[in-house]
Amino acid sequence: MRVVRAVSETKDLNVAPPSGTCCPVVHSLGSVMAEQSASHEVGFRLVRSRSSVPRARSLLRVKLGEWRAVQEAVETAELVLSELVTNAVRVAVPGDRMIGVRIECREQGAWLRLEVSDACDGRPEVRWPGELDTGGRGLLIVDALAFCWGVKERPGGIGKTIWAEIVTPAVVSVPEPMVADSSVMS
Length: 186
Fold this sequence. Notes:
Radius of gyration: 17 Å
Low-confidence stretches: 1-37, 171-175, 177-186
Number of strands: 7
Strand order of the largest sheet: 2-3-4-6-5
Oligomer: single chain
Order of helices and strands: EHHHEHHEEHEEE
Number of helices: 6
Largest sheet: 5 strands, antiparallel
Strand content: 15-25%
Distance between the termini: 16 Å
């Protein structure tokens, strides 16, 4: 089995999906998943400091442990949240602005949505750093690990929220594709 990774319009355009929806493949699982799902949600605010990155990971780990999330989801979510919070800490905003974090969990971590809000108006861009560059890989990591991700404006027009959704293989899987021509290599 292999995991199908949806690349939605929201990812390509870096905009959020309509409120109350998630990525197309997850959304297409239908109401059966939603009806059977125990949904958990938590939000918290962090100061703009490097120490907030491990603090965010710790809070995430505690909450996902309470919600009995699967280990694979916890590990992936920790890395994605670390990258999003690191980006929020690094953006230029007035010093008293805080970082907002929201975590939503369904199906014991089989579906997670992580949101990190900051007061910066700038839009994040995926960069392609050189081998010797010491930074600039955060969104590449988010893009590789998240099922989908994007950006939405915050209510009130101050800043943005970057969101990422994580889906473990237990939720969305399909058979490996069959290759018609044996000379084609993948």
